[in-house]
Amino acid sequence: xxxxxxxxxxxxxxxxxxxxxxxxxxxxxxxxxxxxxxxxxxxxxxxxxxxxxxxxxxxxxxxxxxxxxxxxxxxxxxxxxxxxxxxxxxxxxxxxxxxxxxxxxxxxxxxxxxxxxxxxxxxxx
Length: 125
What we know:
The protein is mostly helical. It folds into two domains: 1-64; 68-101. 89% of the residues lie in helices and 0% in strands. It contains three helices and no strands. It has helices at 2-63, 66-104, 112-121. The protein starts with a helix and ends with a helix. 0% of the residues are buried.
């Protein structure tokens, strides 16, 4: 009986040891998961910072500030107004001459529709 009690005691100790090993493995696995999550979070933050930096640089190169855009638009508008005014001053006399010649030299003609109406109105004899 003593030997069977000792065998049972050995089995109980082996079970306790196995429970400790399993608990230690679970704790190790939990710690590894926590470490992996924190490492992944660090990587995500680093990637976010890098992408934000790249976006800021891209925005500076391509978008500029809204003040720069407004200033460029105003400069282009002023340039185009100067060109239009220069063309107006250059061609004003020619346009006035063409208008006056069109008004002064009138050659009256009967409208084609009026000609058709006159033909229809004349009775055939």
